Records
---
Amino acid sequence: MFNESLPVSRLRSPFAKNVQRKLTSFPPPFESLFSRCLAHNDRTAIVDNIGSHSYANVLARSALLKAKLEPFLEEKSQQRIAFLCPNDSRYVVAQWACWLGGNVAVPLYREHPKPILEYYIRDSKSSAIVTVEEYADRLKPISKDLDLPVVVMDSKSPG
C-alpha cells in the first residue's frame, strides 16, 4: 500500500496548490496506477487537441474534480458516477476522479440520444453526473428529471 503521505502541492502542477487535502493512499484496485503516476510526475501522460498533459497535471486535475464531487456524494464509496466527456484529457480526469474517491465510473457516449443517456444513468443508479461545458445543456434536463447533481468540469485548458 502507498503509505507515504504526499501533499498534492508536491505534484509540481499549477492545479495542485488549489487542492487542500493530502493524498495518503489510493483505493486498492487503483493503487498501482496512481502510485506509478506519482513516480512519473513530469512525464507526458496525454497529448490531445487541448495540449500536452503530464501525469502530475492529470492527477491534480482529477483530485480537484474529486473534491468538487464530494459534497454531492454520501460518505460511502462504490457509488456510481456517470460522466460524459469528449475523447481528450478531460475523459481521463473524470474517470480518475471517480476512481480516486473509490467510486465506479459510468462512461456515457456523446452520440446517444437523451432517452438512452437517461436510461444508462437511471439503470446504473448513478449518484451524480460529471460533464463538460459543451455537453452540460444535454445533461441538465436529465439531471433535473432524476434529481441528480451535475458537476461541470472547468474549461479545456490544461492548467
---
Amino acid sequence: MKKSKNTKQDILKLLKENKIISGEKIAKILGISRTAVWKH
C-alpha cells in the first residue's frame, strides 16, 4: 500500500478492507511503528 500524507485515513482504509487485521500488521504495511498506529 502506498503511504499517503494522512496516516489516519490509511489506517481506516486498511481496517475497512480487512475485517481482522492486527496493529502490528498495519504498522508493517504503512511503514510506521505500532505505537503510531495506536495513537491514531
---
Amino acid sequence: DDVSAFALFTYTGADGEQWAHFVDCRSIVAGESVLLVSQDVPYEEYAAERGARRQIERAIEFP
C-alpha cells in the first residue's frame, strides 16, 4: 500500500513577506524509511513553482 501524507502551510516572514511551505512524506519501506519533500517559496510564486516540484516528485522511483 502507498502510505503518504502532505500539508501546505502559509506564514509571514520577519520582513512581512508571505511564504508557502509544502511538505510531503512518503513511505519507502514500511517501518524503515521515509522520503520527505519540502518546498518553501514566496506565497505569490507557489502556483508557478508547484509544477517544477511535481515534475521532480514524479521522477522519483520507489522499490
